[in-house]
From TrEMBL:
Biased composition, class Basic residues, residue ranges: 824-833
Region annotation Disordered: where it falls in the sequence: 674-727, 781-833
Protein name: Serine/threonine-protein phosphatase 4 regulatory subunit 4
Primary localization: cytoplasm
Assembly and interaction partners: Serine/threonine-protein phosphatase 4 (PP4) occurs in different assemblies of the catalytic and one or more regulatory subunits. Component of the PP4 complex PPP4C-PPP4R4.
Gene name of the encoded protein: PPP4R4
Keywords (A to Z) from UniProt: Coiled coil, Cytoplasm, Phosphoprotein, Repeat
Coiled-coil intervals: none
HEAT repeat intervals: 174-211, 213-251
Amino acid sequence: TPEEIERLTVDEDLSDIERAVYLLSAGQDVQGTSVIANLPFLMRQNPTETLRRVLPKVREALHVAGVEMQLTAAVSFLTILQDESVSIHSYTHSFLQVILLHLEHRDTGVSNAWLETLLSVIEVLPKETLRHEILNPLVSKAQLSQTVQSRLVSCKILGKLTNKFDAHTIKREILPLVKSLCQDVEYEVRSCMCRQLENIAQGIGTELTKSVVLPELIELSRDEGSSVRLAAFETLVNLLDIFDTDDRSQTILPLVKSFCEKSFKADESILISLSFHLGKLCHGLYGIFTPDQHLRFLEFYKKLCTLGLQQENGHNENQIPPQILEQEKKYISVRKNCAYNFPAMTVFVDPKNFHMELYSTFFCLCHDPEVPVRYTIAICFYEVSKLLNSGVYLIHQELITLLQDESLEVLDALIDHLPEILELMSTGGESSVQENKLSSLPDLIPALTAAEQRAAASLKWRIHEKLLQKYACLPHVISSDQIYYRFLQRMFTIVMTNNVLPVQKAASRTLCIFLRYNRKQEQRHEVIQKLIEQLGQGKSYWNRLRFLDTCEFIIEIFSKSFFCKYFFLPAIELTHDPVANVRMKLCYLLPKVKSTLKIPADKHLLQQLEMCVRKLLCQEKDKDVLAIVKRTVLELDRMEMSMDAFQKKFYEKDLLDQEKEREELLLLEMEQLEKEKQQNDGRPMSDKMFEKKRRDTKTPTQSLPKNIPISVPGPSSVTPSTSKEIKKSKLIRSQSFNNQAFHAKYGNLEKCASKSSTTGYTPVSGLGKTSVLSLTDDSFRTRNASSVPPSFSPNTPLPSTSRGTGNSVDPKSSGSKDTQPRKATLKSRKSNP
């Protein structure tokens, strides 16, 4: 109504302080709450005026304030303390009394909020202030004559104060109050004080703990209230490190045994706590167990792991009484806690005894009917694998089970450490093993592929993205052929068809890593061809955008020479793309593209790059793209070019790039050595003969198929893979990239690179390492049909390399109305490591 609007309207000319005073005096509760929420800002802006004019009004408002305003005030007071807007002295003078005044608010939530603020304030207050303002009043507030709420607050404050005073003051003034509250008539107070004994023990030292705290804990552990006994048990477990061996064996161990024996007859909540602390308890008491006690605790743990499973009878959930359902939920929590403690129990039994003592329990936890249990054991799987070390093969099948789990939450938990788990599985826990032991686990690859397909079919794309990122570890644990036939094509399909950008990028990066470690040149060329034709020259602008993402990953993962040899020209060709978004993305990538060039070897490629940028500057009509082009030109001008020779400023990057190039060349050489070894199958080749071949062989650099729109010098014949090649695909792992093999071949690299160039290319004078030829894709294929490798024979249709240049663009496609193939400018660049 107009009257309400008039009453709620505030003069806009008022300052922040004046407005706050006005609203606290005459405004509504919601306005007052807003002012109190804004109090930290006012304190930072004008602390003096806020303390003088606003804070008194806040005090008045809090006397009659509702719950929301009280909670807001507690949070604001704590924020002011954390912001250090005023000195501790000023804060104590202005705010401490307000906090203490509202500690015993009738609403428990409000009281706890003010208590949390006070406990934070205690951390920074000086001793004298603590003594006079908090400790002295606490003596009266902890008496039995006070309310239960007052005594509960006193318990928590005592636990905080212990660390602020010396041992003499604690013994004389604090410990009598502690004893009194431990013997309070209300079980809530005894339980609360018991939980503070851990903090008190850490503040008073070992001697006083043994003489004062331990007797109280023993008495509380026999209390009639189950919550008090539970608090005593948990405090004892947390204080195990403080007590010596005698105390543990003579005092604590009997208490723990008694507690465990009675736990099944007591409330299930005690079993939940016991199952959670059991691993820590067994670890803390490990040295004092007799063999019989050791066995008892192990059997007790096994019993907890299957608690509730025997009672399942197939009834419909709607027919089960509510109390039974509640009990089953508690049993699930117990089994979940057992799964959490499994690594600790593995240490308890010694990993050498895992198969006899704990394997059946581990099997049950991995096959538990409840998702939270399987989720927890999946989180612990890596820790268990590390502990088993060479015995990790014992849990191979459980890995398969969890990978095939119907719940994606379980898969999500497992794949966090999937690379480390697979590495342990592949090496059998040993750091230097020649044979890959995953060959004895034939179900692994189907399980991995099924897991990816299940994640892909769900709406939980983040799990799918993470799984694809983790699959980048596969080249280190399975063979190159297995990756090529079972995973690589799937990654390519995801990049081409998936609708979630982060998933596409994850698949693209993993695909690049698979390509990086592929050990067959024919397969590498096929993948490169697909990337260029189906992504870089795809009809959908979305695919061309993903090609640029892939180029970025190629620059990161491969050597500079590899990118320049295969991807430089297809990338910069997209400067002519009909879709503005593609040109825009390319502009952002150009600085990284330029960073792959080395002068003077790549001078001609640099000229091509500069020519493309000039065309963009002159011909670009889209204003957004043009603005980015201008910024990119400035960045390109500022870039310093890398030279063929090492430079100080680029030393680390050049060294890393040289190492990448060495590994890429070794892949070619090792493949050739493997072929030669296969040719000697008729006559056995000794290791010495094989090593001599490794030293003497000169491997020519093979070229891409001729229908890829770039030119690569070298012969085009590729030997098809054989069954023996697949069997020996494990000949070289990543560790095979050793300096010995590299040095044996490095002297031959120039000879390999200087082989005769591809037919039909005319050298351009003065450039030495590059040449240019412009022709249509179709004529290029026709001319070189005879030199196509077996894998790219006419029986295997290849995707078209032509892409229309029309301007009409649909949501994901720059549909071309012109059916003529686009002219492709093809550049030949000799390999020059």
